[in-house]
Amino acid sequence: MTSTATAAPAASLLRFATAGSVDDGKSTLVGRLLHDSKSVLTDQLEAVELASARRGQEAPDLALLTDGLRAEREQGITIDVAYRYFATARRRFILADTPGHVQYTRNMVTGASTAELAVVLVDARNGVVEQTRRHAAVAALLRVPHVVLAVNKMDLVEYAEPVFAAIAEEFTAYAIELGVPEVTAIPISALAGDNVVEPSANMDWYGGPTVLEHLETVPVSHDLAHCHARLPVQYVIRPQTAELPDYRGYAGQIAAGTFHVGEEITVLPSGRTSKISGIDLLGTPVDAAWTTQSVTLLLEDDIDISRGDLIVPTQDAPATTQDIEATVCHVADQPLTIGHRVLLKHGTRTVKALVKDIPSRLTLDDLSLHPHPGQLVANDIGRVKIRTAEPLPVDSYADSRRTGSFILIDPNDGTTLTAGMVGESFASPEPVRNEADDEGWDF
């Protein structure tokens, strides 16, 4: 007998990331959130107090709650993405504290790629700077549904409302031009605790929520369980034991959507079809399974399926293609050039590919497009056209952040070169020129 379950409410968990320029106070804000929401264990706080005292600081440096690497503590900057898990009575959180330095933009891409909300910090003394615009662009590129502008260090500008208002107006106008659907501006002092967890007595002119209040109440309305159903196959389970002589299951984590027993499915890229005869979840048969659950699908027919294949509902199958146009963020030190031979990893499948064209590069200052730059260098955002050696079933990133994304890898040393999002974005491409001469094309 199978069991039937219902998905947990989407609002029970919020994934969010922090971003901002160097020294804007991201780690201090995260530390203040954890400390003031009583999410710090006693021994953790004691360790921070001890480390702060050794550095001659009278008060505990709350940034040390997230800056865990020795180099981070010595230099006073965030280098790696620090993930923290905490909860309040109203919601559970997974937090990614990302670096602010330009050379660690790829870490920000990693931290924000699964976020439902991004907190972008701005130093009230400096206002919106280039890295602020870069992080807003990355949030828009990754289609993060909610953005919070935290104007920090308000205590250093005497809590002046005009300073906050000017920064909020400039950032919001820029974010809207990028296509960010929602911006909430909050004036804070992470060091003093103003408007982080408790309302500030120093800014009675502000009547909005604190950072934590907004995090607890922001609607997380998009539900991946209702997206196009996709299961990238990670492993084929074939015990061939006396108890299970004929068991053949296809295991993986559901990237999006919901699968049901009896549903007709198609395996891509081969196009073979069958029906789901059973779904095993943690060793228990169930009637249905949905996104983020790791399951094993059993099919009515014995067909050739292996790691890298994608199982989808027959009535909702994506097209397969060898030509992919995408918006990318280049994260490697070596440039990405036209003719660059790479590996493209999409879901659990990795194929050889060639960079056929780079139609445009985005200029962050005024959001203009530089046509046909010829290459993308570290931290550039632009458009690319890629030809793959084998057909891939890809969705538009606007439809599915999981199955509409990919990475490009250096085949020589395995370095991640580029993070890509299939389809259109705020960086609309120039018309892709026709390549009359494909000499040297080997697939």
Give the SSE map:
Blueprint (H helix, E strand, L loop, with lengths): L12 E8 L5 H11 L5 H13 L15 H6 L6 E6 L4 E6 L7 H8 L4 E7 L6 H12 L4 E7 L8 H18 L4 E5 L23 H7 L13 E2 L2 E3 L11 E5 L4 E3 L3 E5 L3 E10 L2 E3 L1 E3 L3 E6 L10 E4 L6 E11 L5 E2 L3 E6 L2 E14 L6 E3 L3 E2 L4 E13 L11 E5 L6 E7 L21
Parallel strand pairs: 1-3, 1-4, 4-5, 5-6
Antiparallel strand pairs: 2-3, 7-16, 8-9, 9-15, 10-14, 11-12, 11-16, 12-13, 12-15, 17-23, 17-25, 18-22, 19-20, 19-24, 20-21, 20-23, 24-25
Condensed summary:
This protein is α+β, with helices and mostly antiparallel strands and 443 residues long. Helices cover 17% and strands 33% of the residues.
User: Measured on Cα atoms, how large is the radius of gyration?
Assistant: 24 Å
Label the structural class.
Answer: alpha+beta
Strand content: 25-35%
* Main sheet: strands, sense, barrel: 8 strands, antiparallel
SS element count, helices: 7
